[in-house]
């Protein structure tokens, strides 16, 4: 428990043998529940999860019977699908705050409290990392990855309505129970791009998002390799965001209330598109009415600009920016000074110490979900009950 709030961690893992065990071992002591979701791995990930989970659970003494809950998907559903499974378990168990840590051990667990603080203090319902808050952080990012991240971040600003939020691809997050209950997570996009889609859904539910400075120093360690093919990922997610954008406008400005923002966007898009097509045609056909088409294009562009301004104003209250001195990077620096990289002692804002046990586990394959101990519990792996905006709903 952290500051009188129960805390869960969702750890999605697909072919992360050699990495996911360290994530389990390094879970902070204030974590009450950890949902380790093996998303249909074909290597030794499941055995590694079982082994390390048994070791941690053997020494666990907390509010819940087990700290680590291994869950296994029979088929690969994508990282978003794995996180959705964890979110639904946390929501069903009434966990106050649920964070996400990658199964590749590229998210520093020592700084988790930096993401929990905005939520437990009541200033936000969702907190996410931002590696663009400081130049020294994004400078360490590979160039092509940086370019792709910037492109998708700006597209996500438009699609989600969180105009001041950056680094939309950042998967280090935390969400409140209230936000999980208000947001349509059942329809959440299940593959890479889930974080962009989730921002759209959070905005439609009027959830305040906190942008938390995050260092990228921990994120590109030796031996780590991304599963993402950016040449395929960027076009696919861009198309998903276009559909999600119109879903948000319909859901927020037409279905749950009325605002001229949605009609303005639609009018601007139609006028700009028709005008641009007319200008192109006049160039090839030497049409004397080319000026009229240019006027239509200009009117459409100005209408889109006005709609954007109105959208920004309507959502400004839904964004919170955490200062550098309050973010997780500062917390990590303080811990390193105190412990020189070793397991830290309890901190004033919570116990950062992790428990590492030596009891062996069998590492054998098990059923879809494991509740711990000799009796295994089954986790339902049902399909989404509502279509995702990525699917055109």
TrEMBL record:
Cell cycle listed as a keyword: no
GO molecular function per UniProt: transferase activity
Compositionally biased tracts (Low complexity): 355-368
Segments forming domain Glycosyltransferase 2-like: 9-181
InterPro entries noted in UniProt: Glyco_trans_2-like, Glycosyltransferase_2, Nucleotide-diphossugar_trans
Keywords noted in UniProt: Membrane, Transferase, Transmembrane, Transmembrane helix
Region (Disordered): 320-393
Segment forming the signal sequence: none
Transmembrane region(s): 261-284, 290-309
Protein's recorded name: Glycosyltransferase involved in cell wall bisynthesis
């Amino acid at each position: 428990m952290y500051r009188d709030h129960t805390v869960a961690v969702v750890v999605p893992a697909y072919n992360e043998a050699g990495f996911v065990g360290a994530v389990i071992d390094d879970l902070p002591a204030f974590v009450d529940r950890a949902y380790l979701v093996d998303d249909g791995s074909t290597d030794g990930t499941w055995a590694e999860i079982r082994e390390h989970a048994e070791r941690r659970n053997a020494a666990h003494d907390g509010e819940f019977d087990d700290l680590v809950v291994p869950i296994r998907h029979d088929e690969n559903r994508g990282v978003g699908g794995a996180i959705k499974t964890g979110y639904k378990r946390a929501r069903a168990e009434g966990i106050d705050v649920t964070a996400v840590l990658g199964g590749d051990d590229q998210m520093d667990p020592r700084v988790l409290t930096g993401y929990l603080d905005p939520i437990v203090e009541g200033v936000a319902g969702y907190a996410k990392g931002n590696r663009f808050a400081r130049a020294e952080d994004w400078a360490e990012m590979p160039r092509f990855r940086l370019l792709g991240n910037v492109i998708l971040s700006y597209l996500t600003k438009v699609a989600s309505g969180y105009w001041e939020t950056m680094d939309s691809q950042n998967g280090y997050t935390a969400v409140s129970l209230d936000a999980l209950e208000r947001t349509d997570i059942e329809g959440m996009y299940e593959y890479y791009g889930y974080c962009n889609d989730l921002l759209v859904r959070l905005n439609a539910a009027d959830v305040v998002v906190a942008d938390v400075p995050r260092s990228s120093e921990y994120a590109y360690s030796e031996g780590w390799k991304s599963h993402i093919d950016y040449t395929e990922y960027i076009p696919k997610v861009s198309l998903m965001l276009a559909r999600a954008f119109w879903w948000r406008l319909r859901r927020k400005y037409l279905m749950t209330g009325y605002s001229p923002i949605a009609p303005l966007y639609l009018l601007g898009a139609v006028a700009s598109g028709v005008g641009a097509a007319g200008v192109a045609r006049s160039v090839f056909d030497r049409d004397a009415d080319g000026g009229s088409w240019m006027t239509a294009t200009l009117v459409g562009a100005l209408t889109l600009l006005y709609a954007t301004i109105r959208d920004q104003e309507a959502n400004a209250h839904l964004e919170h920016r955490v200062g550098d001195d309050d973010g997780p990077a500062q917390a990590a620096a303080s811990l390193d000074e105190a412990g020189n990289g070793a397991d830290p002692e309890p901190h004033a804002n919570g116990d950062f110490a992790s428990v590492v046990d030596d009891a062996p586990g069998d590492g054998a394959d098990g059923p879809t979900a494991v509740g711990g101990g000799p009796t295994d519990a089954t986790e339902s792996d049902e399909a989404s009950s509502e279509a995702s905006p990525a699917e055109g709903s």
